Structures are given as C-alpha cells and as structure tokens.
Amino acid sequence: MFGLSGQAEIAIGVFTAVILAIASNRLHLTVAALLGTIVLLLTGVLSAQEASASINPAEATIALFFGGMVVARTLVPTGVFDYLGALAQRVIGGDGRRLLAVIIVLAAPICAFLPNATVVIMLGPLVINICNRLRLDFTQPVLLLVFIANSAGLLTLVGDPATFIVGNAIRLSFADYLSLLSAGGLLAILAVAALLPLVFRLTWRERQPERETVALPPITRPFALAACSAVLAVMIALFMFGESIDPPVSPPAVAVIGSGFVLLIAFTTKLDSVREILRDVDWETLLFFICIFVLVGALDRTGVIGALGNSMGSWLGTNLLVASLVLLFGIAVLSSVIPNIPLVVAMVPLVKQYAIGAGLATQAEMAAGYGHIPASVLPLFFAMCFGATLGGNATLLGASSNIVASGICAQAGRPISFLTFLRYGAPIALMQLVVTGLYVVLRFG
Q: Is residue 33 within 8 Å of residue 291, measured between CB atoms?
C-alpha cells in the first residue's frame, strides 16, 4: 500500500483491527486499544521509547479530562444535583414541553465545561426519576439529554475530547475558540430545540394536572458546595483568560490545579474520601486515550500518515471550502460507527499533511499553530470539530455518553436499542450537520 514497509502494514493492520473490534463491540474499547499497543511493541514496530514519545501529545488531553472528572465527582455528595432535580420538577409541573426545555437549559452549560459522559452519569438518573414521578416514558428525555450533552461540548474548547484534541493540535486558545466556533455549537443546540415538537412529539404533547409540590431537599454540605463552586468559577475564568496572563496557564493545567483544590476541600471537610473520588474517575477512558495516541504514533512513524495525507490532495483537491464540507460530513459518518476520539487523533495529522502536501501551508506554519496557519486552511480543522462531535449523535456507538445513557436506562428497566437510538439520533445529527455546514460556509467561506 503506497509502497510502504512491512512495519507500516503491521501498523495499519493493528489500527484497523482495534477500530473494528471496538465498532463491532467484540472487545471493550480500552482492552482493544491496549492489546493493539502490545502487538506494536512485541513486533518491534515501536520501541518503548517511541511509544512513550507518542504519548506526549496525549498528556494535555488526559490532564484536562482527569481534572474535569474529579471536579464533577466531588460535587456529587454535596447534594447539589438532587437539589437541581427537585427544583426542575417544580418548574416542569406536568408539562412535557417544560421537561424538554429544562433538560436543555440544565445540561448545556454544565457540559460546556465538564466531560459529557460524566454529566450524563450524574443527570441521567435525575431525568429518569422526574419521568417516573410524572408516569412518563423516560426514553425521549434521556435521549435528549445525550444529544444536548454531546452537542454542548462544542460550546467551548474544553467541552469535548474531539474539540480539545483538534484545538490543541493547532494551538487554538480558549478565547479564540469562543470567538470562532462557539456560535456553531450554539446553532447545533438550537437545531435540536427546533426539532423537539417533531422528534420528541410524545413528550412534547404531554400535559398532566399539577401534583403536590415537590419538597426541595437540603444541600447536605453547603460549605463544601460553596468552596467547590468557587474553585469551579475560578477554573472557568482561567479557562477564558489564563493563557493571556503572565505566566500563562493552559486549560489542562487549570483542570489539574482545580482537581487538586477540590480534593483538598473534600479531605478537609470530610465531604468524601479522596480514595472514593479517585476510584470513580473514568480510568478506562484515560488509558484508552494513551493507547490510541500510541497507535496513531505508529502510523506516523512508519510513514502511513504522510502517505495518506499526500494522497488526500487528489481526493479533496484544493478547493478548501468543498474539502471542509467533505471532511465535516465524512468524519460525521465515520464517527457515527466508530468512537470519535481515535478518529480525530488519526485525522489531525492527516489533514495537516494534506495541507502541507497540497502547498496550502508550510510545515513551519502548521507547527506554529493558530495565527500562523493560513486562514483559508483553518476551516478544515473546524469542520473536523463539528463532524466528529455531531456525528456521534447519530448512533448508539457514536459517543461514550450514548453507551452510558443506554446502560442507565437498562438499569431502570427500559434499555435503548441500536435501532431506537438511530431513529432519534439520525435526524438530529443530520439537521445539526446541515446547520453547522452552513455556518462553516457563511462564517469562513
């Protein structure tokens, strides 16, 4: 293939096997990625030193999402989520329209800063409890929670792994992301809201007489909640302005610092044990990040990335607006059947090589990042953000939060099948992709 070496063919075979094992649900995604890494080491495609070097680009992603997971988990025993759930029930009454609106208003701002799968774990049971109290089928409300959680990741640089991986690869700051791409994320959420009467019509039409007023549960640890909320507020401020101060503080550093402070609060106030909080961190996903970066590092070291990137010139041509739309919809289709994290990790160097090979940007410009990369090339990367994130809304396999929600519903006695998810997710994802495609054309074309 492309005249590549035997080691390159092994790297391609291992990466393909890992993706197929994950997409077909034959193996747990972390096990598949870890076994692939082991095969690369045993066959000599990568040395231990080369594998370690391949992990370096993953450090920022791992630090960011570790910090977000710790902060989110530490807030749970304060009682704030139970309080929000009861408050939501008061607002909703027996009106299905209010239920759907509350889910959007509650989930979107949280998922803009905290990992979406973690938020679904926290809010999913609350949505189910509200629906059970109203004697409603909770399938549609839980699916809406998932779609909003995934889409809201586009609101900020740190909201979703895919957006951060792409943004970090081109050295896009948090503030630059807000000015360039956040409006597209907001449009994606508004696209879901516009489809509520059609896609979620059973819940939308629901009207029930007012029941007894729901009692608001007390915040069990008000001081701890206030302290953790203060840390979270400072984190958000530093996400926005930390890179412009002296010395600059990057989003991953902010997340790690914030996690340290909330763990200190949990320890000193006896809110929860540090061991319990760290035990609930999604270590499987973090290990998956590491292994995927190693697998892509093998593709890069053996020349596969360079060969494919150069070949993309003949596939996509040099009309960058058309190429951006092809990437947006193409990556969306791929991310609907395979996890978007390995897809984005692999596509970023491919697109960089395509731009360099087609003479659209130089190696030095790509290395220097945003502000040096030609403006005409940037929509390629922005399209990747939209496509990888929103394509995950189409199928049950498209995002980790989808699978988490299915598990929560199964525990509540009503599992979500692949076809059920597809029936709701496909029209949502298509509408969002059309809207964000128009945004790319009008904003950057």
A: yes
